[in-house]
């Protein structure tokens, strides 16, 4: 099977951000011979500027009117490929899209081909194996392709959605392209009907899916509430008269359009009742419905269709322009990461690192999939070059294995890990999975090690044993330790013993785990690679005020010193030490204030939260309005806090790496951190910041006062921190280091992985 030249045509209008994702997804197609042709509509929302940034890697045209058929015809005139594939500007194809379409055209009788279209969830199909009757109504109760209905003038014929359809260019030219009477709705249906009636075969494929987000447009509001109905009703009449009179009387065609209008009126009335449309919209609908029926009848009486001009059909398109893809130096890999938390709304250390790592691996040209727990509705989405699978975790049909007897693996941990394993196994059935990366926290890799099917790298970070150091209430609770603590500690050890590759983000975390668990981990099983971060400081500010989690630093006087804490409000992060120190710091620095950002709902060992305990203390009244608890915030708001602070203070008792320190350095801020774990490997003491002994409020007070007192020192350390970030901690370099190290240490076959576990 040879690769035919494809032209991917995207017609777009007023959907710049969606188009950006669609174009990005094309970089990851496993197909070489394709070009991209973008036809821009009349709206000016920055879309044309976006497309121009891609030139000369793609072709571009523009239409002065909002007419989809006319835009598609303009795309045909740009297209030099043997096959023209149409893709909506809010649709992202899976990697095998063009390869699957190409295979369909091995049959010389196939004139058009397309795959299924996932709805916005990325899980359910919006359309698959649909047929259309001669009145333009769809029928989707089909479990597979419908070639039996594929013959000229069939009363019901196979259909392809406009967001995922392809045609031989020769066929489109011979039929005159799209009928420009269809400015929107039934446009591709009419084209497919004409292909069927000309004797061409329509190939409905099991593969070649795209994910359709159904973005808002000038015709449709964000809630999918239609606000322009005339084309829907006009085109129903026009389609029936052009394509259905061999099967239906004119009266039946007209009656279908009238019934369609009545159904639409009920929809509009429901939207009015819900306040989604106004009473004036209902009156406008009635006018548009009447006008649409009249216009459809008038257009159908015209002797000729509104097809491409003769010159448009015969003119040679511009030369074929291959689209530049994101390709790695060697073979493109399929890489999977799992994490219980993932942005948006979850920007803790593991969540942030997984997001950064996935995006960096995608920039290297690999296929990257992140599997995470769904916090709302489950779904699949293409985000920043990464396919994100948000899974609903249900009780596994597989019971937890007996790995750490006499302890029993906690059922929620097993159910989560097994769900991740089964989802990645399903992906592996479609394309080979080359690597899985999982954090040690909560024993997420256990199912992958229990059944060693995939090369696995386990990321080391704070273990349960370290966490319990700051949770004496848990450590000395016999029942909790029996049910949760002891089994997890035993399972952590089992994972550390059996994982073929361990990722250490610092030398300290490796040494601390070896000391704590009384074990020696061979160097051959370890990849030492620090975490990296993309440059948040270079991201332009985005207006997010008014949204949940959109807190922003309050204005302060020019001479004020703003300290910032970022992290969960728990003992391990040293927030209790910070609050004690802050009382003295704010007393001695009258213009200082402290912003505290992070989850403040975590209960202390003594009961209650640190926030409620502090605000209820007598001392709080002396610093009222100068220590502000902001809770968890979204990413954009967090960037503003970093940008506006003067000193970042996170006196953690333990950090396996200290990603938060790196964030402060990225913004050119001096950092005060804990002298434990990975902190000393991130903070260059006395150069980029200061380190304090864990739990030492007096040393922390002195460090805060010194940096609060000396502006020049803050500036010098902040600039040094920024240089250190740029030199050592940019994501792309650290992600490449980790990937190369993991692949060098891991066996590539199931047999090899099993032998590795036995060893």
Q: Please tell me what the overall shape is.
A: elongated
What is the count of β-strands?
A: 28
Biggest sheet strand order reads: 17-18-16-15-19-20-21-22
Structural category is alpha/beta
Largest sheet: 8 strands, mixed
Proportion in helices: 25-40%
H/I helix tally: 26
What percent strand? 15-25%
CATH top level of the largest domain is: Alpha Beta
Mean pLDDT: 90
The CATH topology of the largest domain is given as Spore Coat Polysaccharide Biosynthesis Protein SpsA, Chain A
Structural account:
The chain is α/β, with parallel strands linked by helices and 759 residues long. 39% of the residues lie in helices and 17% in strands. It folds into three domains: 6-224 and 309-314, Spore Coat Polysaccharide Biosynthesis Protein SpsA, Chain A (Alpha-Beta Complex), CATH 3.90.550.10; 334-528, Rossmann fold; 549-729, Rossmann fold (3-Layer(aba) Sandwich), CATH 3.40.50. Strands 17-18-16-15-19-20-21-22 form an eight-stranded mixed beta sheet, with helices on both faces. Strands 3-2-1-4-12-6-13 form a seven-stranded mixed beta sheet, sandwiched between helices. Strand 19 (435-439), helix 13 and strand 20 form a beta-alpha-beta unit. The longest helix has 24 residues, at 250-273. It is elongated. 48% of the residues are buried.
